[in-house]
Specification:
Structural class: mainly alpha
Largest sheet: 2 strands, antiparallel
Distance between the termini: 34 Å
Number of helices: 4
Length: about 90
């Protein structure tokens, strides 16, 4: 697990309402989605990878990862896909 001060920073909620959940982890997902776009061309493969990763996080909750809310998981996938789409658009 990351050091406590990094974890606290990344978990700081920026927006949280009925429709949107954004914390600093959202930007990590955006960036990593963009990086993966350099190798992954098909959107459905990218979605599959992101979903498998989120399942992996759930399975290793409290071992390697903290517990996430459902809205956080959905937005992790959305931000990952947004990063992928931005890079794929410009390639």
């Amino acid at each position: 697990m990351p050091p406590n001060f990094i974890e606290k920073f990344l978990n700081m909620t920026l927006i949280d309402n009925k429709f949107i959940f954004i914390n600093y982890w959202s930007f990590i997902h955006l960036f990593t989605g963009g990086i993966l776009a350099l190798w992954i061309e098909k959107w459905y493969i990218m979605v599959g990878i992101l979903v498998i990763y989120e399942i992996f996080e759930i399975l290793l909750r409290n071992i390697l990862f903290r517990k996430e809310l459902g809205m956080d998981i959905i937005y992790d996938i959305i931000f990952g896909m947004a990063g992928w789409a931005i890079i794929r658009y410009f390639l």
